[in-house]
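Ticket #4471: structure output looks truncated?

Reporter: J.K.
Steps to reproduce: submitted the chain below (144 residues) through the standard prediction queue, then opened the result file.
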Amino acid sequence: MRNDLPPVKSVPAPRRVLDLVSPRAHAIIDRLCLPVLLGCAVWAARRSKPAAAIILAHAVGEGAVGCITDFPTNIWPLISFRAHVRIGQVGGTTLLALSYLLPPEPRAERNVAIFWGLVPIVLNGISDISGLPAKDAELTTRQA
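Returned output as attached by the reporter:
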């Protein structure tokens, strides 16, 4: 039996309703959030060392992942934007869980840590990963 079927072309993933933030806008937001995170860690260190540690860990992780992501304004393009989004979804959830383990007092520092745990979950949830680079599209079609 011959295979007379035409070759399968890779079809781009359909855009989701929540694809609101482009990779470039995501990169800019990440670059703006890093100094604010560091400032929040310094502010929290005066009253709550555990909250400051969680916020600082978030800042270091966000900064490291942002530096190795293949953004339009990249430094070392080692991972794709899709991987960046996946890391942010897992990291944000982890930091959010750690923030909920903080003691309820002082309340302001705990709330700031919880807020910064929510930011990557929301930002990565509304980021547009449908426009994959060619190498990501090839990997996706091979896995299917």
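Triage note (M.O.): checked the attachment and the full token line is present. DSSP finds five helices and no strands in the chain.
Status: closed, working as intended.
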